[in-house]
């Protein structure tokens, strides 16, 4: 394991960054656009409520989303931003009760989602043992980011989110490089007979089973429909990687770096796929 005291396995660390739809007001079903090319049956404009959104903000077909052609819904993850905007930013006031605030609420949701995603990555970075040399910097960035999530709507709308993300990304890259360097040095035997994977972005449909993926840098890579069966992804940086239909059956992602629930939800796995305990195995995966 490459984590401090099993911290990554402490689900409480990620509790506030988990979706809680019962405390939200259907922001992802309304604020976002739907595209038929991204796992939805039709296109939907941002700001228009989904036809399946009910008066209590629940989904009328939640148990059958994939069967109804809404794979995109099962893949989406707001990192807990929905309930934060609903219950903290607007103190339980919803957009149906206050339609004059609807567009502002939707804008806040998009900003908050970015901040909560950064918090997810920063929290994981804080648990990475090889990154102990920058642990204090990560802790300070977590505190700074958390404080931004508690700003008023008027202050959030003025936030330079790109500037803050640049600072966060710098720390995440440092943490990743420290992990990858440590893992690569300690796992040479496990990669025997496999070729090293060159830094790249386009792996669409590629067969990567014979590649050494331990400690690989796959930031933002296109892994759409890539074959990763039975692969060891220890220390592999997967931040922003597009894993739609990537075959990870039997793969070990327990100690991969910066993996999210939405990435897992779009991939093809089974009961032999090993995941970090902070993530949930999709019910629609193979047994």
Rg, nearest Å: 19 Å
Q: Structural class, from helix and strand content?
A: mainly alpha
Uncertain residue ranges? 1-6
Main beta-sheet strand count, sense and barrel state: 2 strands, parallel
Helical residue percent band: 25-40%
Overall form: globular
Helix and strand pattern: HHHHHHHEEH
CA distance, first residue to last residue? 26 Å
Quantity of strands, as a count? 2
Overall pLDDT level: 90
| Strand content range | under 5%
Number of continuous helical runs: 8
> Largest sheet, order of strands side by side?
1-2
Describe the structure.
It is globular, with a radius of gyration of 19 Å. Helices cover about 35% and strands about 0% of the residues. It has helices at about 25-30, 70-75, 80-90, 100-125, 135-150, 155, 160-185, 260-265; strands at about 195, 210. A two-stranded parallel sheet has the order 1-2. The longest helix is centred in the middle third of the chain and has 26 residues, at about 100-125. It is an all-alpha fold. The chain is built from eight helices and two strands; from the N terminus they run αααααααββα.
């Amino acid at each position: 394991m490459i984590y401090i005291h099993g911290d990554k396995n402490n689900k409480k660390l990620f509790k506030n960054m988990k979706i809680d739809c019962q405390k939200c007001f259907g922001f992802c079903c309304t604020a976002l656009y739907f595209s038929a090319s991204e796992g939805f049956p039709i296109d939907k404009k941002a700001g228009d409520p989904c036809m399946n959104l009910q008066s209590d903000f629940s989904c009328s077909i939640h148990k059958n989303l994939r069967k109804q052609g809404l794979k995109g819904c099962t893949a989406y993850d707001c990192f807990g931003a929905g309930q934060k905007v609903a219950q903290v930013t607007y103190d339980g006031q919803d957009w149906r009760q206050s339609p004059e605030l609807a567009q502002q609420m939707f804008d806040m949701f998009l900003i908050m989602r970015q901040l909560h995603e950064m918090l997810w990555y920063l929290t994981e970075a804080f648990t990475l043992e090889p990154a102990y040399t920058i642990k204090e910097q990560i802790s300070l960035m977590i505190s700074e980011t958390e404080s931004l999530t508690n700003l008023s709507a008027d202050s959030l709308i003025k936030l330079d989110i790109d500037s803050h993300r640049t600072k966060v990304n710098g720390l995440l890259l440092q943490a990743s490089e420290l992990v990858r360097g440590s893992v690569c040095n300690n796992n040479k035997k496990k990669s025997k007979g496999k070729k090293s994977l060159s830094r790249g972005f386009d792996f669409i449909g590629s067969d990567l089973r014979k590649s050494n993926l331990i400690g690989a840098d796959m930031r933002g890579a296109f892994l759409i429909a890539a074959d990763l069966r039975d692969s060891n992804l220890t220390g592999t940086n997967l931040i922003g990687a597009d894993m739609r239909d990537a075959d990870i059956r039997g793969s070990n992602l327990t100690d991969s770096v910066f993996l999210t629930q939405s990435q897992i939800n779009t991939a093809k796995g089974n009961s032999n796929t090993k995941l970090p305990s902070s993530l949930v195995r999709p019910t629609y995966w193979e047994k």
